[in-house]
Fold each of these.
Amino acid sequence: MTYLFSHVDTVCFQRFLDEFSQAYPDSLNIVQADNGRFHKGKELVVPQNIVLLFQPPYCPELNPMERLWEHLKADLKWATFPTLAQLQTHVDQLLNELTPPGVASLTGYPFILNALSALNTL
């Protein structure tokens, strides 16, 4: 599942949450978020099967997505693309090449794995 937005605001985040909720309706989904305004907008309605887990302010190192972005950027470091569409196609290819074990190796921080393990015991 890939979402592409030209910008980030509460409306975009709401759309993401709604579509994510519909894609995984039978599970409780934990979405880690930083403290961006769009993650906490007053008009934001978090679906019942989603829990937002906010990381402490100014701690991007706690966000597993940062490691995934580092991985993608390493492949793009010296690449040039004549058009934005070609860059997007290349990024899509990189994302499609990721496997669940590969993503887990990049993002499976112990504190996240421990929290998930604790949730499984409830």
Amino acid sequence: MLLLKTKQMVVEYGRKILNQGLVVGTWGNISARDGDKGVFVITPSGMNYDMLEPEDIVEVDLYGKPITTNRKPSVETPMHAAIYRARPDVKAIIHVHSINASACAAAQVEIPCIMEDMASMVGGPVKVARYAISGSEELGQNAVEALADRNAVLLANHGVVAVGRDLSEAFRTCLIVEKSAEIFLKARILGNPVPLAESEVKFLREFFLNSYGQR
């Protein structure tokens, strides 16, 4: 029952990233971890988000091996698996090709932590992972290295990956990264964007994780 609910949530967020213009067509991918069972579910390869049903979502293990064979999993399954292995705190991953963040990825320019909401959600700058071919183990390794303990990373010449404690958090992080990228690019026209100090970023991140909201 829990796994079915997780698949339903992946379908729901697939429609959200499409409706928000974070992806075009079948590009991008979404996954969510099923508790601590060593299993995650991921969107299938090359299927339209607005046509997905829960039975289309593929179950895989933490090494990217499919458990179910109903559909072929996303080509980026190795990257998702690598992040889950490296980050036990991560329960959801969303990979999108939003315009402004992708512009930074194409220029291989990191997005500095210039906004408070970015500090809260991402926990620092969005760094650029070294380029590797889509679907390769190398891409997963590069993403893990550049992601470190933060919640978003740019894939060079490709797009952005956001992670979170659940799909809602990963989705909101996608939106914050895209907004921050747009602000960064516009601020560069006016002058040099001024990043927040590391101590300020740390305070905002810890407050978000431990005190923000109805806790």
Amino acid sequence: MFSAKKLFLNGPIPGSKKIFTRLTSPIPPIEPDPSAVMEEKEIPCAGFRPVGDISSIQVNSALKLLKSSLKNFSGPKLPLEITVDSTDGKSRKHTIRITEKKVSIHAATPFGAARALYRLRSRFALRKAPFLKTGSWDSRKTLDPALAHLIFKDDSLFELGPVETYHKNYLQRIAAAGYTGFHINVDLSVFTRSALLPAMTHPQAEKYLAELRWITERAKEFGLDVYLSLYLQPLRGGHAVFQEHPEIRGSRMVNTDDLYVLCTSQPLARKYYAEQMTNLFTSVPDLGGILAIAGCEGWLHCHTANMPDTCPNCRGKNIEYETAVMYNESAAALKKASPEAKFVVWTYNIFAWSDKSAEKFISYLSTDCCLMANFETDEEFTVEGATATIYDYSVRNIGPSKATAKQRETALKNGIPFLAKCESGTSLECYSISYLPVMTRWQKKFERIVQNASGSLMNWKFIGFNDEGLSQLAAGMTAMGEGKDLLKRLAVCEFGKNAAENVLAAWKLFDESMEYHPFSNQTSGYFKGPFYIGPAQPLFLYQPKKVPEFFERSGHRELWITNLSFVEPFGVKVILKSINKMLKYWDSGCELLKDIPGKHTALARLYRGFLRTAVNMTEFYEVRDSFYYAPYTPEQMRSK
């Protein structure tokens, strides 16, 4: 089973042990709000007497959590009738009915009943009182799947462990927050057993398959699915599989001399991928699905390799058709082995080899596939007269982008389910903190995803689910159908009724502030600069010869910015004007929060420091570089 590898809790991330302890502790009982009073259409309810279909492991786990969560409530207990249509399958369809006399849950499967119970618990958690609103609610406006990322899963594509990554209490927190599962980034090779291409067989495949079965069984206890985001590694040109079958050697990987992918258009390569889907889903029957990136990474093929002219088989062929057929055959094999599992083709950066609307490619996909697109990317916007593109995960743009809308339209026209990819916490406007407190904007995004998609991948791997960021909680609750009036309920729950009005007003100001964010590849920095390291961004007169100790933790990478490349493509004037407008609204929001203690207020103030740093750095480098704009005297030269 799992290797002896341990979680890296002694590294540079502050508070890792504390975070691990918090997330792996049992979910505590809900603390009642003594000031809460029963409102119109509410009934008193401090607990339940469950009857009906309650023997399944999913329902049993959810009921235990519901009972322990209401431990501190006092008042009448109502009958809770649970009926399940079938013990087979994973449908999460459900209906909740609450009357003065009882609460009833009718679900298609135990997975649906468990989600309804977690949904019921979330209402108590938000209300902080032994009251329930009467009425009927169903699962029509929910997301399935709604996938999170595991915060303690490291970046290794060749290991599933360590085992603590999948701690029971942590998985239950994911389920209780409204998510239906999580994804694991992993290389297909570790599971490979092949009769078609024996040279591809991994010597420890059975070990990794056993680990994956264990993970899916543990996740199943909490009504969660496990999806694999599959990576395919390029192979050396002299690899045994190419020696045995030279015809399946495809494109050479870009910027390499001797790394090749399996040929997209070769029948044997396609059969091999289909064989692996069959093996994977028969060996691990509870596996939820596959995420296959079709654009520029992940599931590499002759066109993501970006050098299709190096593949003699694909040269001159219809690349959209050939790539779609490869995915269709794998999806068909997956569906045959596990009819409820999903094969999700993700068009991330599809423009690397096709047009960004992907209309031609999607039209060739079969209905065995699902389509997933980034919800807000590839959209142009204007700020202070300058135009830029939302190039990656953003909260500035709510979505859907025009490209995403077109992909969705094409998919639905062809009977292909559409899923949305977003970040429910760490957007690229500032991805060194768990989330930006622009809750009004986050909620607009999540509600639009529910309106436009049947499911969503809500975390990639910047920062996984931490059960603390309000945006992640809003994403999960909206995904399970609790989006109505959610911001107001969250504000009252987290900050109290007296402070809620100021909090909601601050969120609206932060939302307005983001309208002026000069988002670009250069300003976001991608792991460098003031929008990544914030106030730690130095102001350099000259490039330092020695890396300061602070930056050595990141492998001597330059986390700072030393020139005005930060302002591209906007220019200095637009950058300063737009960020100062952001600060105008952000300062006003912080002022409304000044008397409200806690992490959320601290987070808002922290981000204000990021914005001020960006202004200070830009102004400093503008003055520094101005010495080169005009002639200067020998005396000025010496002073420089």
